[in-house]
Amino acid sequence: MLIIGIAGGTGSGKTTVVHQIMNELPQTEVGVISQDHYYHETSNLSFEDRSKINFDHPRAIDFELLTSHLKDLREGKAIEQPVYSFVTHNRTDDTILTHPRKVMIVEGILILSDPKLRELFDIKIFVHADSDERLIRRLKRDIAERGRDMDEVLNRYQTTLKPMHEQFIEPTKAHADIIIPNDKYNTVAIDVVRAVINQRIL
């Protein structure tokens, strides 16, 4: 099994890169795991307290479970991925049954910040995008998909997202094997990644 880690700031275009890679591979041979489903379970907290959690800090992620699940997949075992709701700020009762694939893609803003998780990645990718571009994408997504309003998103960006990006996300670029500038459609970088994948899974 080939495990690929795709990191980058919020709104950097990680999902686009994931789709570009997947489009060239047989669907039966590739699976995706999102860091967003591995936020800690917080049923012990009130909704008000849950809404105050800093979701851009490594402490918010259950790296232990994510690492354990990747090891299980590598050993040929299926896993039950948790499902996280950004509306309730908590895991739901649902899970996603995920079977091992030749290629597993793990994507998320903080996945390169945890040493034990990082060790499991055969290829480490960091998607880089201009900070203004990332803010615009985050605004559009959170308002459309997560029920936030503009003031809430902008306030969170200034108080949490930007400082967390500078402290915890941007430095992980140093761990990347490939940095993809996603200011425009970058076919060369994607082709390099695809070539490496095809070489490893043939």
Q: Beta-sheet strand percentage?
A: 15-25%
The number of strands is 7
What is the average per-residue confidence, as pLDDT, rounded to a whole number? 87
Spans of at least 5 consecutive residues whose pLDDT stays below 50 are none
Largest sheet: 5 strands, parallel
Shape: globular
* Separation, N- and C-terminal Cα atoms: 11 Å
Order of helices and strands: EHEHHEEEHEHHEH
Query: Looking across the biggest beta sheet, what order are the strands in?
Result: 2-5-1-6-7
Structural class: alpha/beta
Nearest-angstrom radius of gyration?
17 Å
Overview of the structural elements:
The protein is of the alpha/beta class and 202 residues long. 39% of the residues lie in helices and 21% in strands. The protein is built from seven helices and seven strands; from the N terminus they run E-H-E-H-H-E-E-E-H-E-H-H-E-H. The chain has a five-stranded parallel β-sheet with strand order 2-5-1-6-7, with helices on one face. Helix 5 packs across helix 6 (150-169).
List keywords for this structure.
alpha/beta; five-stranded parallel sheet
Topology:
Blueprint: E1 2-8, H1 14-22, E2 30-34, H2 47-50, H3 63-74, E3 79-85, E4 90-98, E5 103-107, H4 115-118, E6 123-128, H5 131-145, H6 150-169, E7 178-181, H7 187-201
Parallel strand pairs: 1-5, 1-6, 2-5, 6-7
Antiparallel strand pairs: 3-4
Helix pairs in contact: 5-6
Task: Provide a quick synopsis of the model.
It contains 7 helices and 7 strands. The chain is an alpha/beta fold and 202 residues long.
